[in-house]
Amino acid sequence: KMTQQMRDLQLAQARKLPGPSSPNAAKRLYRNLSGKFRVNYTSFDEGSLAGRGEKEKLRKSYLFQSNAALFEAVELQDLDKVQELLKQYSPEELDLNTPNSEGLLPLDIAIMTNNAPIARALLQAGAKESPHFVSLESRSLHLSTLVREAEQRVNELMAQVVNEAPNADCSEKEKQLKAWEWRYRLYKRMKAGFEHARVPDAPTNVHLSVASSSSVQVTFWEPLSVNSAVVTKYKVEWSCSPTFSPLVGEAVIDKLKNLHFTIQGLVSGTAYYVQVSAYNMKGWGPPQASVPPFAIPSNWREYDGRAPRRRGQAEALDHLLSQVKTVHQHCVCHEPCKNQPQSRKHSVSKSLKHLFHPSSKFLKTLKRGLYLTAIFYKDDNILVTHEDQIPVVEIDDTYSCLLMQDFLWFTKVSCMWDEILWLRQCVTVSQSSCSCILQTRFKMLLAISQMQGLLGIQDLGQVFFEPVKDKQGNILIITLKEVKTNQTFESVRWVPICKLQTSRKSVSSPEEPTALDTLLISVQDKLAYHQRSSHALSPGLYLGYLKLCSAVDQIRVLVPEQLPNILCHVKIRSNPNISREEWEWLQKMASVEEPVPTAPEAETTQNHLFQELQVAIKELMTLVNIPLQEAKDFRLYSQEVLDFGGQVSFLLLLPPSDDVCTAPGQNNPYTPRSGFLTLPLQIFELGED
């Protein structure tokens, strides 16, 4: 059947639409694609198209052209064009895994011409080999047929060109002859590539680790030699026997972007042996056993049967909060409010409405006192009032010294922006004691309500870790929030940050800037802090460095400037799980009075953890600028592994017990000099969550 098709085949009809028949034609098509075909289909004038059917037909014609261009780019070994097409179109739009009229796929051509870069690009995009090649014999026969029929076509066209007189038809025949000669050479090269190829070597660096109580993870690298043929898939096999007989299971990996595989559904406490083999067009290569040769699914908690620290805590806190709300709603203190005459109700209602009345406006200048400012930003723009001021409202004009406990209380309130009205009611009820602290906190809640009302939004964002102060006695508490949608606000507008900084006229001297001027000068630093504090770590096991310093009214924790919501850290490995065997070894090390870092037995998970820890400790000490010899008295926290959501876990490295927390005025030999900052412990705990 293929032979008959090839006899009747004209090169101009070898694709779904007439495609390029030579390298020059392919280049012309590339130019077309880089210009006319690259535009978004919706950018055409709607009036120039007869209707949806015509637009869809036009779209399909572009996709057919792109499919032809992909084949030509692979045949011409044009890696840049292949990458451009894969980036521009989806695999479905390119018909990436639909064979052409010769029964070939783009990946077939790439691997049989041994073009490894193009083959890898196609594989990462989801390309497959042709399903027609069910055996080595079928592939060899198919290639021989293509070569033979291309040669036959070349001979036929050559005879016609020689025997016919020069005319228009003869010129067309000469073009076809050149194209078929080029295709004949391509098929011969593909056939030679297939004949010279051998099965690949075994994969390298096959490493096995325990992923959980019911799974293990195997990672591996490509073979050192693929023997003239690109590896297109891998096979992972596992068994309870070192001879792999019988097999418990196997899996074929054909998505090669990340060379790892997690074997799920295993029995805890049972040893599993794992091996990996590679495949190319000549078949499966020899398997490579993992190192260590087996792993036992487990988790460190199984060592002493410990339950997760935070299990049920969030639910318990929500339940406790709902109970508190219920008690306050039925509190005796609220009864007089319910039994007041109608006029009293109107008075209370009016007193609340005044916050949202136009007379309540943002402040333009600061007097001596405590203020709240909200910074909303989107890309390089910031939200300002119609007077081009950052939104500011007054908290207390008689308050010139912000106590740290009041500020930390405010940061906790930021976790309950939607509950401000209820909190105000609670504080109002308790205000009879005339406590100065309660008076201040009630004014904070009033300022929050006013800011929410003026902006028309509840969530004011995250509190910056320290207020901005000036010598005139002004104190600014700052909230930061990134806006990622087209959200509308009241009484404000967007302006570029740089424009705001250059257009605002300072009302203070450079020697004694006001708090607002200081905020405006440093606003980009604060936005950078806010963005960094929301970054998440990639999954893995980390080694963290815990260093505290105390003051009269607070304890501060050392964090990196680039990731202030996490302790100073380095990554140990991508697998976050600590197995029972690894944790047992760590416990033995911690129980020795004078631990000697002797390595465990070779080819065990404990030995791999030992090596990984050695590398991580050296890297961490370099990061925090502590000489390695000074860290000889440091110790690993052996009470638990800190688990964050199951994907990130931490082992903690602690200074000597007397130096974990440095007192005021105490010489601190274990604090780095730059690239780090210290956050109040309560602020760090909020950011960590």
Automatic annotation (TrEMBL):
Residues 202-299 form the Fibronectin type-III domain. Pfam families: fn3 (PF00041). GO terms for biological process: establishment of mitotic spindle orientation; regulation of establishment of bipolar cell polarity. Gene3D superfamilies: Ankyrin repeat-containing domain (1.25.40.20), Immunoglobulins (2.60.40.10). InterPro entries: ANKFN1, Ankyrin_rpt-contain_sf, FN3_dom, FN3_sf, Ig-like_fold. One of its GO terms (cellular component) is spindle. It comes from the Eukaryota. This is ANKF1 protein. The gene is Ankfn1_1.
